[in-house]
Amino acid sequence: MSQNILDASYAADFIGNMIIHEANIGIMLSGIGYTDGFCSRLNKATQSKIINTEIKIHLLSLEDIFGETEAFLKATHDLPPLRNLSGGKWNQYK
């Protein structure tokens, strides 16, 4: 989370991590939004022939999360069901 609008350098990190971890769904959360450079670099990367798999990317802001906007709802539909983490080691962090 950053207090600044996310620029193209964040897009490179985001898409790079998606490739490294072989993710096919990515959700980026920004406090206040994304620059045109961010969106442009991300778009170019996802259209690259090097990435030979279809990936879904959702760019969300805090406004999307708290307002449960259409962008937020679309992102939640693409996510797999969450596991129940109420037991085991996670239980000690309550």
Largest sheet: 2 strands, parallel
Q: What is the 3D shape?
A: globular
Quick check: average pLDDT? 84
- Uncertain spans, ≥5 residues at pLDDT below 50? none
Strand count: 2
Radius of gyration: 15 Å
What percent of residues are in strands? 5-15%
Series of secondary-structure elements, N-terminal to C-terminal: HEHEHH
The rounded distance between the terminal residues' Cα atoms is: 23 Å
Oligomeric nature of the chains: single chain
Strand order of the largest sheet: 1-2
Please work out how many helical segments DSSP would assign: 4
Question: Can you give a write-up of this model?
Answer:
It is a single chain. The chain has 94 residues and is α+β, with helices and mostly antiparallel strands. Helices cover 41% and strands 13% of the residues. The protein has 4 helices and 2 strands, in the order αβαβαα. The protein has helices at 8-20, 36-46, 62-67, 70-78; strands at residues 25-30, 56-61. It has a two-stranded parallel ribbon. α2 (36-46) links the parallel β1 and β2 (56-61). It is globular, with a radius of gyration of 15 Å. It starts with 7 loop residues before the first helix and ends in a 16-residue tail after the last helix. The mean pLDDT is 84.
